[in-house]
Write a structure and sequence with these properties.
By secondary structure, the chain is α/β, with parallel strands linked by helices. Helix content is 34%, strand content 16%. Strand 9, helix 7 and strand 10 form a beta-alpha-beta unit. The longest helix is centred in the middle third of the chain and has 20 residues. The protein is globular.
Length: 384
């Protein structure tokens, strides 16, 4: 498939400040033989004005014109569009789709003949890393999580020396060493705090240790080969993990949870009774918080609440949007890698990188977990 024109959509989700492509990378997209259209005002929340896009040889236009001309539509979130009126067969849509949250919209894309690509669905292959916007945005979120928590703490993270002695540092625990957790570890370490990490996957454990974290082995925390094998131990050993964490977290001042296996709700690892026992003044940031829950019982995404005993609980949601400059630039590099691959492949479905990222293609729902959701819904409704 060869794309000739891409369109950068203006985000409509409240609070979203990122843009899918930044002016600096428009020339690189152009060198692929691709024309760039940008919806007027798309870059403004991230600090990029229409004049900057024009200076980079992009065409700034209204949404209706962009939808009519673009072969590939680029966004951060699934766009607020009517598939039957505003999309056309053969058009490509690329964004952080989270398809299992929007199965009926996915079905409409498939029925319309749209090829939808989830930039949050890159496979675990070295060739796919440049396209993995889920990971790049998670790293920004991990960084922001530590800074956000630091703003709520009543102490500074590193130890401080005085004429009377040394103040104790803030002790940090990170649960889950995926991209977000690793960045949280790195940020806290750079700020001078000692960090412990809870992580069952060998590769992620090694990465956490390389960043200076001390690995914490909890009762029942048995190693798993990779992310795909997390489901079984979470179902089998979750109570043991929770019991171990319930005792471990009492030693920490700042806790970041970031354990969210793909394709399933985040596991509840910290219950309300445990949170209430944390040290007074402690801060807990749940990076797994979302519509399906989080790692902390009862957490609400996008909220900051005071638990008993002076504990602050932060349900993080799209923290990357709070750093739109860095997040947009990182995302734009993922988009550039996607466009490069699209322009050099014949069929996305046959490509080892693009194939697993396809949500819909050629009239069918290709993302198996979403397809199963739709089949289950159809069966419940008693439809043929």
């Amino acid at each position: 498939m060869t794309a000739t024109t891409v369109g950068v959509l203006r985000e409509t989700v409240p609070g979203e400040r990122r843009v899918a492509l930044v002016p600096d990378l428009v020339p690189a997209v152009g060198r692929l033989g691709v024309t760039v259209l940008v919806e007027s005002g798309a870059g403004a929340p991230a600090g990029h004005q229409d004049t900057e896009f024009r200076a980079a040889d992009a065409t700034v236009t209204r949404r209706a014109e962009l939808l009519r001309r673009a072969d590939v539509l680029l966004g951060i979130h699934p766009p607020n569009l009517d598939p039957t009126r505003e999309l056309r067969p053969g058009q490509v849509l690329a964004a952080l789709l989270r398809p299992q949250r929007i199965p009926y919209l996915v079905r409409q894309w498939a029925d319309r003949g749209v090829t939808a690509i989830g930039l949050d669905l890159a496979p675990d292959l070295p060739a796919a890393y440049p396209l993995d916007a889920g990971a790049s945005q998670a790293r920004v979120a991990g960084y922001r999580a530590v800074l956000l928590a630091a703003g709520h703490l009543d102490r500074c993270l590193p130890p401080w020396g005085t004429t009377d002695g040394l103040f104790d540092p803030v002790r940090v625990l990170v649960v889950g060493a995926g991209p977000a957790g690793l960045q949280a570890i790195d940020t806290a370490r750079r700020l001078g705090a000692p960090v412990d990490a809870v992580e069952p996957r060998p590769r992620e454990r090694a990465a956490a240790a390389a960043l200076g974290a001390r690995l914490s082995d909890l009762p029942g925390l048995r190693p798993v080969a990779d992310e795909g094998e997390l489901g079984e131990p979470l179902d089998r050993d979750r109570s043991a993990w929770s019991a171990g964490l319930a005792e471990a977290v009492l030693r920490y001042d700042l806790v970041v949870t970031a354990l969210a296996p793909p394709g399933r709700p985040p596991p509840v690892l910290l219950h309300g009774a445990t949170v209430a026992r944390l040290r007074r003044g402690s801060v807990l940031v749940d990076l797994a918080a979302g519509p399906e829950g989080g790692n902390v019982e009862g957490v609400l995404p996008g909220t900051t609440t005071a638990a008993g005993g002076g504990v602050t609980v932060i349900g993080a949601e799209d923290l990357a949007a709070q750093a739109p400059g860095t997040a947009s630039r990182a995302y734009a590099h993922n988009v550039l890698a996607l466009l490069d691959r699209l322009t050099h492949t014949g069929s996305p479905g046959a490509d080892p990188v693009l194939g697993p990222m396809l949500v819909t293609d050629r009239g069918a729902v290709r993302h198996e977990p979403t397809a199963r959701l739709l089949m289950a819904a159809t069966a419940v409704a008693g439809l043929p």
